[in-house]
Amino acid sequence: MAHMVFCVRNQKELEGLEEPPFDSEFGQKIYQNVSKAAWKEWVERQKMLLNEYRLQPWTPEAQQFLVEEMEKFFFSEGSAEPKDFVPPLH
Q1: From residue 65, how far is each of 37, 40, 59 by CA, in Å?
Q2: CATH number at residue 20
Q3: Nearest Cα to 3, choosing from 36, 29, 41, 25?
Q4: Structural domain contains residue 83
Q5: Mean pLDDT in each 10-residue stretch from start to end of the chain (90 residues)?
Q6: Full-model pTM
Q7: How high is the pLDDT of residue 77?
Q8: How many CB atoms lie within 10 A of CB 75?
């Protein structure tokens, strides 16, 4: 049976992640409150942040920044777009 959560992002009961994304208290919080669909949205947002800010994801500074943005994205006011971000035209 699928792991179901009440998703904080989508505000409804949806299928959750298969396992916590991190081995930490924050990873457990995500596992218990974030759906697969919302996690997919975060992955896209994370790619945009990495590209727009030209972050090197292996550095502690970039990792800390991404965790802070993830906290905002799921549990606070939302992760803001970079100042000069122009969404791609599809």
Answers
A1: 22, 19, 10
A2: 1.10.3880.10
A3: 36
A4: no
A5: 92 96 95 97 93 93 94 83 66
A6: 0.84
A7: 75
A8: 15
How far, in Å, CA of 1 to CA of 5, rounded? 13
**Residue 81 resides in a domain:** no
Q: Name the nearest CA neighbour of 68 among 40, 42, 90.
A: 42
The neighbour count for residue 81, using CB atoms within 10 Å, is 13
Query: How high is the pLDDT of residue 57?
Result: 93
80 located within any domain: no
DSSP secondary structure, the chain, as one string = ---EEEETTTTEEEEB-SS-SSSSHHHHHHHHH-BHHHHHHHHHHHHHHHHHTT--TTSHHHHHHHHHHHHHHHHSS-PPPPTT--PPP-
Counted domains in the chain: 1
Q: Are 63 and 57 in contact (CB under 8 A)?
A: yes
Structure token pair of residue 45:
């947002």
